[in-house]
Design brief:
This protein is α+β, with helices and mostly antiparallel strands. It has 2 helices and 4 strands, in the order βαβββα. It has one domain: 2-Layer Sandwich (Macrophage Migration Inhibitory Factor), CATH 3.30.429.10. The strands form 2 sheets. Strands 1-2 form a two-stranded parallel ribbon. The protein has a two-stranded antiparallel sheet with strand order 3-4.
Length: about 60
């Protein structure tokens, strides 16, 4: 039972997450085999102010 975690900046719509879940599940099945119902995906929305790269908050980088 694969557990796939996707962390991304907040703001994606439910429709975008649905499409992503379908695409990731399809990719997993095509590359690793298994049944679609065995693939679990957890989306974590993160505020840009809670994500830092290179010592800088992404809320400062992506203004």
């Amino acid at each position: 039972m694969p557990m796939i975690r996707i962390e991304m900046f907040e703001g994606r719509t439910e429709e975008q997450k649905r499409a992503c879940a379908e695409a990731v599940t399809k990719a997993w099945i095509e590359t690793c085999n298994g049944k679609p119902e065995s693939v679990h995906i957890i989306f974590t929305d993160v505020a840009k102010s809670d994500w830092a790269t290179g010592g800088r908050l992404m809320s400062d980088v992506l203004k």
